[in-house]
Fold this protein.
Amino acid sequence: MSSPAGTPRRSWRPSTAVRSAIAGERIELATLLRRRVIFVVGKGGTGRSTMTAALALLGARAGKRILAIDVDAKGDLAAALGSPPAGFAPHVVQHNLSVLELRTDESFQEYLNIYFKVPRLTRLTPLARVFDFIATGVPGPRDMLVVGKIAYEERRKESHSRAPVWDLILVDCAAGGQAESHLAAPKAMLTLVRGGLIRAQVEWIDALIRDSRRTTTVLCALPEEMPVVEAIELNERLRKGSGVAVDMCVLNRAVDEPVTTAHRRLMAAMTDPEHADAVAQRLGGSAALLEAGIDLQAHLNGTTARYMRQLRSKLPMPVVPVPFIVDRTGLTTTRAVADALSSRLS
Amino acid sequence: MSGDESAPVPERRRSVRKEPGGLGRRLGSLEVVICCGSGGVGKTTVSAALGMAIAAAEDKRVLVLTVDPARRLATALGIKGIGAEPVRIPKARLRRAGITVSGDLEAAMLDMKQAWDRMIERYSPDRATAQRILRNPLYQRITDSFVGSHEYAAIEALYELHDAGEYDCIVIDTPPSRNALDFLEAPSRLTDFVGSRLLSLLSGGPSRFGFRAMNYAAAPFLRLADRLLGAEVLAEVSDFVRQLQLLYDGIQGRARSVYRLLRSPQTGFVVVTTLEQGPFSEAEFFCTKLREFKMPLRAMVVNRVLPDVFRDPGGVAAASTLVEDPKVAAWLSNELRLRVSADTARFVGRTFLTRSTLAQREVRQLARLGRIGDVPIVRIPLFSEEVSELEGLVRIAKAL
């Protein structure tokens, strides 16, 4: 499957360095979208929500029924899809695309309801709180609720056709370390819970997470030191800790339009004392000021290339740059990111 | 830079005269400076630079307490590594990097595990209780997963260091929380947690709060929890909780003193942020909360602000002409006697306009920050190099 027809291509051209960096190891969008669950992880501020939303748009465009889940429940994911904050129940954002937001207490009540047929009652609240305290001390339960809910959605079937309700579930994970404990929760639970009704549930959730054909992770990074270092470490820990596959790293806010000698020559000529006045007259302002833009561009190009190289050398997976998009977060930005992503991946 | 030593009077050294500026002096009289903000805004770097600025402005013994696990700060400070033991940053190195400190600058990294262990030992009524808690397999888990546990450890370490009185000023870099508020709420949350009735319920045994009657009421809950998790887990939890409750008085007392310190006039909070949406709204929220908690906000540091040139109307006009005027390339070719393609002209304009759009947005956000409180707002411009060396840190210290 290639990218859907009519997908506008960005006029953004990667530099040779970046092109060669992504050549060789590529991942096709279609391959990625054939998974059942994709966890999008990364340090705070690395554009996780936008990336999750962009993948969701691409999936829906490819005709898949998509559920996008926000684990942080700050409403960022819904906003990136141009929707008001969603709730615990899947909320249809557009054709083939729904979003839901996870909150621990609600997860817990629904969990009890689904698996143990415990009615969802207000008198459960003290129990929920007791559970919350246990959950604080015991590894697993709290995180299990998160993965449990995701696994439940993955298993959901249409009542008539028995076909899965969702083709693909995209998860906007909580920042860095939290995502790690969510994903490692089943494994941790298995060492801890030797009996109890939970064990059977945990076993199949663990199997789902470890099955690289069904489940994978996408790392998000920025061309800055800490996000890059954390993405590299996170990859290591995710694979070791939870056994989840990591298929791709996205370098958001990549700046990659090279400054050429033609640009520099134009700058030099415009600021040459011989022409400076005439140029200022014609342009409506001094051309010398524009130097700052060129310098910053050149600097950011260099930073992007440097971090691309670092990621490429440390991560055994394709690293995909996504250009810096000036818009505020929201559907416009998400669409632009989706377009950039699809042009790089197909 | 080592090459400078033999040079007559390098530029950099002359510039030492007019620095360090305001914030170092302003915050120099404080005993505790707490840097807060979202993760990724450069909090660690700013705290180190702030410590540097204070040591430069005042003849004081300054400690920068960091929670950054990366070795980056150590490298930036020019020392081999930062451990729990404070390390002094050699004055000569600082001078070579362009800053003269009159005081002493030391750095240490917070060891979470150690901070928690010490805390348990301190609050336990006796050694046996402490040993029992430290040995409980759940103990490490709880210190890792308890909401705000790192924050609490950081506050404890800060409190102890302040109490010991070895340093005139301690600059602390707070842990990267999901919510900066966790830091402020950590002490009371721990007290609530340890003292909660629900924990008494869970612990099953006779409760120090006299809620034995409730154990009966809790039975169905416990039975269900038992079914969910298995009996062994519950027994472990319950034993742990029972031990933990013995610490209640100590923890409660400490929480009170900690809040007293956080509210005292010798303490100052510095909110660090960038102008990106996420960190920015978090910073706004945090400032409001500080006021609510009656904790003194002393300054805001806005990191990575675009240079002023991008706000210059002349630049915007020139860039717009290059981007929008279809005839400009031809005119330039003629005037400059240089073949200028339309693409080249547009590119030069566009690189400027992209940033000036962001710069305009930043102006509005800075104005919003200004309305939050009458504290100084210091902007650190987006430097064209990254801060991974001492020189970079010094430059930020000077900007402060």
Summary: The longest strand of chain A covers residues 246-254.
